């Protein structure tokens, strides 16, 4: 565009070729340039409307979301994998902050918890809920590593490995729960 204006301003300096090129009749380049006049107006403030109101005004359909899908094993295991990862991160953060801030060591707090006489079943339930995220995330991570090698990727194999992973995760969590027997019970058994 700037070239056109430079050529138009050059006028007779370009010689006979430039003058023919920039003629104002229908055969010249100037005939293609349309004069434009801009009129200044005050800016209009945007309408105060939300996302949904704007889409309804523009007659845009609402996109379907997760609520239209039936729960599937694959999606539930994926969501659970993320939640157990967040739980494990929360354990590490809580234990780290607790080690820095709390005046006593962690074994002292465990001893105080045992003194509450929650009972063997209560302590086992607490241990299970602490051990399950670790075992679930571990076994599902192994499953994902197997997928990275290109194995077990058909729908049937994905479901089979999902059920196997769930079984291993629950069994491992129960095993970890039963593995840690309080010292008082060990003395009673002897």
Residues in helix, %:
55-70%
Q: How much of the residues is beta strand, in percent?
A: under 5%
**What does the main sheet amount to?**
none
- What is the first-to-last residue Cα distance? 98 Å
Return the average pLDDT rounded to an integer.
83
Give me the secondary-structure category.
mainly alpha
> In terms of per-residue confidence, which ranges show pLDDT below 50 for 5 or more consecutive residues?
none
Report the order of strands and helices.
Answer: HHHHHHHH
Number of helices: 8
**DSSP, total strands:** 0
Relevant CATH superfamily of the largest domain: Fumarate reductase/succinate dehydrogenase, transmembrane subunit
Q: What would you report as the Rg, rounded to the nearest angstrom?
A: 37 Å
Summarize the structure in words:
By secondary structure, this protein is an all-alpha fold. It folds into two domains: 1-34, no CATH class; 71-181, 3 helical TM bundles of succinate and fumarate reductases (Up-down Bundle). Helices cover 65% and strands 0% of the residues. Helix 4 packs across helix 6 and helix 6 packs antiparallel against helix 7 (155-179). The protein is elongated. The model has no long low-confidence stretch (mean pLDDT 83).
């Amino acid at each position: 565009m700037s070239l056109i204006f430079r050529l138009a301003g050059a006028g007779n300096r370009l010689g006979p070729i430039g003058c023919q090129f920039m003629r104002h009749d229908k055969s010249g380049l100037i005939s293609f340039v349309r004069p434009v006049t801009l009129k200044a107006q005050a800016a209009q403030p945007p309408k105060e409307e939300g996302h949904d109101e704007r889409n309804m005004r523009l007659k845009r359909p609402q996109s379907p979301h997760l609520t239209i899908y039936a729960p599937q094993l694959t999606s539930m295991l994926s969501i659970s994998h993320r939640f157990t990862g967040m739980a494990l991160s929360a354990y590490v953060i809580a234990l780290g902050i607790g080690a820095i801030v709390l005046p006593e060591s962690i074994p002292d707090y465990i001893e105080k918890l045992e003194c509450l006489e929650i009972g063997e079943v209560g302590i086992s339930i607490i241990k299970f809920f602490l051990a399950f995220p670790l075992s679930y995330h571990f076994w599902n991570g192994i499953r994902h590593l197997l997928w990275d090698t290109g194995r077990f990727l058909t729908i049937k194999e994905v479901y089979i490995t999902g059920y196997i992973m769930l079984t291993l995760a629950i069994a491992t969590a129960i095993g970890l729960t039963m593995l840690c027997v309080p010292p008082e019970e060990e003395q009673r058994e002897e």
